[in-house]
Design brief:
single chain, mainly beta, six-stranded antiparallel β-sheet
């Protein structure tokens, strides 16, 4: 059962424009869509992940991993990456300079067979924690003799257990965001960790702020986004193209990538002209855009970092705010000829 978490019982109708593209199966239109926000202590929920019971997890600015209880609809402290973390010093703080003490987990990925939660921590590398939570075990802080500077995106291949993840930069860390942008940094990496051999290897280098990672349901490929490179790569894991990458598509500032049960992918993709228009696209493995959403309230002109479909809801994560948002979706089939445009107006 998907959880809906509320803050002051805030419920509103989303003002959203939906561009429907024609594709081979019957198209669907959103007939009504409302949202509820829920508080995120310390702020900065860049990504969400759900366990097998439907409970939601997210990393926040002060280094904690929060778990949202489906019955109480409140968050509890679940885990953290830093062995030096001190609650008195860290709780409620959003200072990147405290990252090495407090930790800052950006990406989360479950391996459901083992019930292990993998964590991409910007300061403490690749970590893992069991179902009881607590201090995570550090798996990697370097690969090939090179230190991990700024882990971000992560996804787990449910068939093999392999963990795919990104390092935003080989030069800068999370506290140096503006410096990396000003320098046009292109030293990011895409890597894989094998939990059986306990070894990792680099798959792609020379990336511009790689963020999102999405493993195909059939384990045949992985999608990797470049936030400042404005593009998405397809890295083949199987077949004649195995161990090679191809440019899948260009899109504006793609952030996290989240696969759906049907095998498609939601990508947070914000447009800047000149202010940010927060949005997301749903694509298939061939890079065909199946759906485009632009979000108004409560994000307005704040760029989002993730669009995550869980059951009948779209969860939107945003590194820059202190709340999360769940949009409830009701869909009905509608015939279209060559695509069309639908618009959901704000309810009276």
């Amino acid at each position: 059962m998907a959880i809906i978490l509320t803050c002051r019982n805030t419920v509103a109708m989303l003002h959203i424009i939906i561009i429907l593209f024609s594709f081979s199966f019957p198209s669907m239109s959103i007939s009504s869509l409302s949202f509820e926000t829920f508080p995120v202590p310390s702020g900065g929920p860049e990504a969400f992940i759900f366990d097998s019971t439907g409970a939601l997890y997210t990393g926040v600015n002060d280094g904690r991993i929060l778990k949202y209880n489906t019955s109480s609809k409140a968050s509890i402290d679940f885990a953290h990456a830093s062995p030096k973390r001190n609650k008195a010093l860290c709780d409620g703080k959003a200072d990147p300079k405290l990252g090495y003490i407090c930790g800052r987990t950006l990406g989360l990925g479950f391996h459901y067979k083992t019930n292990q939660l993998y964590m991409a921590d910007a300061y403490h590398g690749l970590c893992v924690v069991g179902p009881k939570g607590g201090l995570a075990t550090q798996l990697l802080n370097s690969v090939g003799g090179q230190p991990l500077k700024w882990l971000d995106g992560i996804d787990v291949d449910q068939r093999t257990g392999n963990v795919y993840f990104t390092d935003v930069s080989s030069v800068y860390n999370l506290s140096q965001v503006q410096e990396s942008i000003n320098a046009g940094d292109s030293t990011g990496k895409f890597m894989v960790y094998n939990p059986n051999t306990k070894k990792a290897r680099v798959l792609l280098t020379g990336l511009k702020a790689p963020g999102g990672v999405g493993v195909a349901n059939d384990s045949s490929f992985v999608l990797v986004s470049e936030f400042t490179g404005n593009r998405i790569w397809k890295y083949w894991l199987k077949g004649v193209k195995a161990n090679t990458a191809q440019l899948l598509m260009n899109t504006s500032t793609p952030a996290n990538i989240k696969k759906t049960r049907s095998g498609d992918f939601w990508v947070a993709s914000n447009i800047q002209k000149p202010k940010y228009i927060p949005g997301g696209i749903r694509i298939n493995g061939d890079g065909k855009i199946l759906e485009t959403l632009t979000f108004g309230a409560p994000y307005n002109n704040t760029p989002i970092t993730e669009v995550h479909r869980h059951r009948n809801q779209l969860y939107v994560a945003d590194y820059y705010v202190n709340f999360g948002c769940a949009y409830k979706i009701s869909r009905h089939p509608r015939k279209t000829l060559g695509g069309g445009v639908g618009k959901i107006e704000k309810s009276p």
